[in-house]
Amino acid sequence: VYCVLPLASIHLAHQTQSIPETHTRRERGNRQQTSSVAVDSTRKVCLVCKKEVSIHLYKHHTYHTMVSYRSVALTTLLATLQPRSMFAFTPVASSAARRTALLRGASSIYSISSTARFMSTTDTAEEEKAAPTVIPNPEAYEKLKMEELVSLCKRRGFIFPSSEIYNGMAGFYDYGPLGAELKKNIKDAWWKHFVHGREDVEGLDSSIIHNPTTWKSSGHLDGFSDPMVDCKETKLRFRADQLFYAPVVLKESGERVGYVLVQEANDEDMMKDAKKQAKKLLKGTDNKGAEIEAFAFRDLTEATEEEMSEIPSPASGKPTLTMPRDFNLMFQTNVGAMSDEASVAYLRPETAQGIFINFKNAMGTSRAKIPFGIAQIGKAFRNEITPRNFIFRSREFEQMEVEYFIPPGDDVWEPFHKQWMEDSKDFLTSLGLREDLMGWDVHEGDGLAHYARACTDITFRFPFGVQELMGIAARGNFDLTQHSEGSGKNLDYFCDATKEKYIPHCIEPSLGVDRLFLALICSAYAEDEVGGEKRNYLSFSPKIAPVKVSVLPLLKNKEPLVKAARELYDKLRKRWNVSWDATGAIGRRYRRADEVGTPFCVTIDFDTIEKDGSVTVRDRDTTEQIRIPMEEVIPYLSKQIDGY
Predict the structure, then answer these.
(1) Degrees to nearest 5, angle at CA 609 with 642 and 587
(2) Are 242 and 386 in contact (CB under 8 A)?
(3) 355, containing H or E segment
(4) Of 153, 306, 335, 626, which has the most beta carbons under 10 Å away?
(5) What predicted TM-score, i.e. pTM, was given to this entire model?
């Protein structure tokens, strides 16, 4: 006997009772096809759900459907039968025979629990259902568009546009329920790794607004700016170093016919946009179809006035851009009741300066000795000219920084810098960041700040191109020296071992929470095929997943099941963020958990409450399921999530 038993049709497995009414093929709601000759038919009533049931017995096939039109899709059962002698209404015991008997209207009464149980289990251990074959799609990330990622983040409650009901505000974002959890887990993991995990680093939480002289001493008031250009026709502003121009030169004659201008993006998109503009330019200069030289892009800050007179604006398509000029990125505010020059203050554009101005306090109270670090996580604000690429470049963001103070000397800083580079990469990969999407970018020459001895970025390949993710800089003693001079306070350090007095140098590993958040979602995005069905999911590392476990009772209307599941749920949520899902088919619930990156699902079924007290634990990535005793669930999950 071969049968298909939908989980939603459990109530049909109950004993049914005949009712004295003749069945007709034209009965309303009956969608039975009658390709075989009917031998016998009857009408019955399910003793549990009280629905009328039609039992049609055919020479070759039996179809069991609900008379109610609304239930047809949920209750169709198909069985391929052998001789009609199998229709004897006799009590049976084996699970295989029970399944057959249910299709015949057996006279024995089986409880809903035993019915559901044998529908979800097999006859012998050898017949245990193996996990379906999982076929990964290695090209999923290559085809991922930024728009799809933004849509996923909003749909599943990771990130929302800020003030959306008022049409939003450019450069600002709100983190939803899952986003807030993921962001918190990122910050907790960083703090645990770089502060709690080290004996030579202490924490700090400085204020967002400092005395304005802080920014004068640090150089931010005079030099913290980006190059900006305006479109004179549309009044739009752009960051000049994010615009790239190239001459369009005919290959045959070497004549320059104009310029193209594209915004910073991945190489493929920039080239596609440039070719589109060049095609239009060639057509307008009677050179349609002519071959051109390869584009030699330069950023707009390098353009001369003569070139700017020909370079088209990205807004108007005409040469209407101003020459680049500096634009200070700090947000200005006023402190106190009066709004005059004396009340002017600034929202901090970085967290580092709060560490430097607290260097003396932190060193004294922690009784630390150099080498020694101060760590901080906090908000920063930059009035970006053109915020773009979702949360990668926004006007309000969060930073995680360490200022690691070391002795001076040309031969001292390099080993510390190299060690922090290695430690930083190890931390990022421990969170689940894909190593194949990461790279290094060493700043040299003009790419270095005037005070920096070295700076190396850890880069990440986002859908919009390769960009800086984390910077590890050797800053020298510039900052402490500037604040010592600006405040008139002595920020020297006296070394007991060498009896030297000096202003320490520092190594600064700096990482944006929001950028890491985006990189982790990119790394976690995955597609595969499970048992022939396509699946999209987020493969977060268990240590940073916003929801660690989803607890699923097999049925929501069976009190013993719900009670057992609730007891486990209450225990688990004392340790982790855990979700409860009792609605829908079990497979659909698995998919919901997969899409938001929940690494484990725990299903409580009838074996849990009637047999051995074990539960099913399903792994998100492999879809494999194991049975473990209820009392071993927390130790097992703790090992998988926390590592111990």
Answers:
(1) 65
(2) yes
(3) helix 352-356
(4) 153
(5) 0.74
